[in-house]
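Try this one yourself first.
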């Protein structure tokens, strides 16, 4: 019986080794016959036959060799921007550390510093992204068919829509609140946001002046007057939390009102008089803008 037990143990070990290396767990005919002949007469034949015909065990699947796929840097920057902007707005710029940003976006601080030198450069990149997509208007080649007032109205409306967007207003509110303690915020917003917006309007005014569609000098003061008249008080009300960002029809009415006031001076050749009152026709980018109460009525109304 001792020899029989040893022989059976060897057979089990052999079967287990075959299963581990992926060989079907079925002994050869010669080995099976030896096993059956040894165990004949002790009532264990059927049990041994059942052991030799069990299905092979399956090894756990292994992970493919090599590093897992990594994110491209553009996607990493986008995730870092989103996490940092949320923290800056909700928690504050000074109260947010780069460790907080790393935890929020699920990346290491080493990765963040590889893409951004310091927290100011991260905030500047957020401003760049928020201001990205400033309107560009092509005046075309034929100045005779160009409606200067309509073009200027489209530029002012596009700029107002972009600047008064809730996201830009949140960034501006952050700069106003923490600017005295972190002057780099105002520097970034001025250089990367306000200057770029001013340049869009300045380019449009200069192009209209070169083509003889605007009378009088075109300078920074005219640009500031126009942009301030359209967005100035509205931006203050939104940043102070006294009003929600204005709807599109409100902005269209504001642009129409501003051009109704300054249009006769800018586009002198296009104005007409009827009964001693100056009537000014302004078309916004979405069609004719609704005139606010007290503004001159368009011709033909």
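Now uncover the answer:
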């Amino acid at each position: 019986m001792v020899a029989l037990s040893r022989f059976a143990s060897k057979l089990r070990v052999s079967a287990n080794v075959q299963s581990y290396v992926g060989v079907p767990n079925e002994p050869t005919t010669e080995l099976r016959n030896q096993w059956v002949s040894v165990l004949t007469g002790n009532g264990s034949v059927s049990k041994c036959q059942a052991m030799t015909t069990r299905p092979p065990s399956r090894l756990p699947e292994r992970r493919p060799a090599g590093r897992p796929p990594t994110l491209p840097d553009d996607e990493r920057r986008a995730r870092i921007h989103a996490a940092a902007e949320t923290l800056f707005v909700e928690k504050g710029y000074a109260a947010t550390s780069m460790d907080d940003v790393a935890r929020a976006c699920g990346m290491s601080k080493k990765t963040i510093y590889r893409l951004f030198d310091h927290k100011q450069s991260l905030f500047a990149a957020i401003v760049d992204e928020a201001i990205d997509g400033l309107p560009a208007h092509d005046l075309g080649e034929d100045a005779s068919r160009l409606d200067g007032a309509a073009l200027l109205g489209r530029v002012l409306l596009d700029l107002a829509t972009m600047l008064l967007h809730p996201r830009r207003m949140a960034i501006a509110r952050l700069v106003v609140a923490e600017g005295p303690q972190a002057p780099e915020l105002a520097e970034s917003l001025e250089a990367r946001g306000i200057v770029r917006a001013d340049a869009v309007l300045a380019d449009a005014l200069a192009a209209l002046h070169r083509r003889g569609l605007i009378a009088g000098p075109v300078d920074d003061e005219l640009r500031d007057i126009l942009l301030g008249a359209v967005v100035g008080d509205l931006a203050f009300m939104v940043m102070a939390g006294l009003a929600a960002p204005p709807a599109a029809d409100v902005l269209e009415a504001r642009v129409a009102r501003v051009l109704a006031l300054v249009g006769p001076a800018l586009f002198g050749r296009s104005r007409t008089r009827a009964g001693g009152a100056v009537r000014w026709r302004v078309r916004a980018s979405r069609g004719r803008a609704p005139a606010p109460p007290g503004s001159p009525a368009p011709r033909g109304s």
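Discussion: The two ends are 117 Å apart (CA to CA). The chain has twelve helices and two strands.
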